[in-house]
Amino acid sequence: MKTLRVLLKREWLEWRRVVIGTILIVTFLNLLMLLSVSRGSAFFHDKLERDGHIKLEDIQINDENVGDVDIRMKGNDIEISIDGDAASKNIDKWMSKITVPIIFGLRIGMMGIFGFVLFLSMFYFSDAIYKEREDNSTLFYRSLPVSDHYLLGSKIAAGLIGVIGLTLFLSIEYLAFTRLAIWIMGEPFNALAALVLSHISYVGMLWDWFSYLIFAAIHMAPLALFLILVGSYVKGRPLLIGLGAPILFAISWAIVFQSIAFLKYIAKFFWGFNQVLIDQWELMKGGLDGEVLVYGNFWGYLFNLDTLISVLVSGLLYYGIWYIYRKNIPAG
Amino acid sequence: MSALIELKNISKSYGDLKALDNVSLEILPGRIVGLVGPNGAGKTTLLRALTGELDYTGEARVLGYEPRSQRAELMLEPGVIHDISVLPSWMKVNELLGFMDGIHPGFNRERAETFLKTTTIPMDKKIKSLSKGMKTQLHLAVTLATETKLLILDEPTHGLDILFRKQLYTSVLEDYFDEEKSLLISTHQIEEVEHILSDVIFINKGKILLYASIEELGERFTQLTIPADQADELRAELKPMSEYGILGRRVFLLENADTQALVKMGDIQTPSVADIFVALMGGEA
To answer: Among A104, B161, B162, B226, which residue has the fewest nearby CB atoms (within 10 Å)?
Structure first.
């Protein structure tokens, strides 16, 4: 266990700049969001005081519908109409409408973070062994009393822990910034958003998000291991070859066999973890009734045939990585 | 006394090229063995086979372990310095010491730091920013600070200047070597190590041409210096392995010659390991 801890620390030391850089970039984007919210809030408050109401045209109400939102101050009371439907007359109906875009925003933000981390992880996985080969340090690591499985396992584990840990950390940061943004917006937005957000269990949401990340990690593991495999073999440009070769293969397959059935299956397989999310979102459109599930529970999705295939393919790819790693093919 | 290294019929091929061809040898504790051969002779291949880096055919036991299948267990015992810089370039010097401290139970961090204090290597710099000599010194510091029974040096002075070369071998002899340990040094520059060797292995084209102690070399090989006008007559009689001329005289290198008889013919000397190497390689070329 100590060996694994030391090897994981080695990965952290090597990649900490990327991790810290990612956090700084996302924090910067969050600060930009705060700034724009602050500016927008000042504008709307001025408009509200001057005109007595704010009309927001063509607002995305939910996934399919766009409508106009009119916010009117009557003394200390707020009246909000969506497409002419006065919310004050039917607060539940209005709430069900306003909930969707807010939760949609939370989902999109967190998915964006996950997508960004996933994109960066491609660089990590393709470079995991390639960089060792480039500076010949494979010879150094293999001159130590550490098995190849520890050396390789620590790299895979570091990648998975990195993707899940960094996504969770940035998601929490994003949620915190979202709350801060709502607070900065001031009344009436603050009170309105609070009405929606009070229905969200943040702990539950993060737990669901965590389960989703585990599910996504298992589905993405073959791709991650494939990139490591390519990085353990090619002379240069592991990411380009790792992503480009399958695309070329796919095009050649389609041309030679005049069929894209196989490619569709592969695409469906990798899209699977996304589809699960979309399926869950569909379930969430019902409106506000008690506690809102932002994502839904994903543990049930873990145990299926696709997961088994993922694990088996990952196992085969791992064997390939181990076999090639022992050969220590020089890079460059 | 059991051998630290035992090889029986080790072979390794790269396509049609035989990098190792039925290599068999034993190395006992307390020996300093020079593995000598020209570039491409199979030295690095042999050392990498010993450290479990390569697949091979034949039987190998290093410190009691089969190198390929028991590499991790084996690597508790030997220290290895390669002919190229292999330390992770992105690490800082102090991070490397911390890493070794955590990963190798035989590593003594204080010892490494003490050694590094005698050098100009900065602790907070990345390894990639160090000069080649500094990288070798750092690797040496890390290796010598690790408790090992066998030290394998593969062309350790490759690319280093004369000061670093001298310092490296001095450090190895003073800080590492004792009668319980063995040193296996691969080099194609025999002159710089022959004074410290107890044994020598000549290798060429993947084959062991000679494996003998320095004493045995002295008994087996003789250098005879004769007047040039007697060269033709004695050449036919003695059949020297090699010869060269110097200051109007001819120098013959002879194997298993009767030294009592040679004394009457001219001046006899023990040849240098380098001369024997050149003579043997000349026959191979």
So the answer is: B162
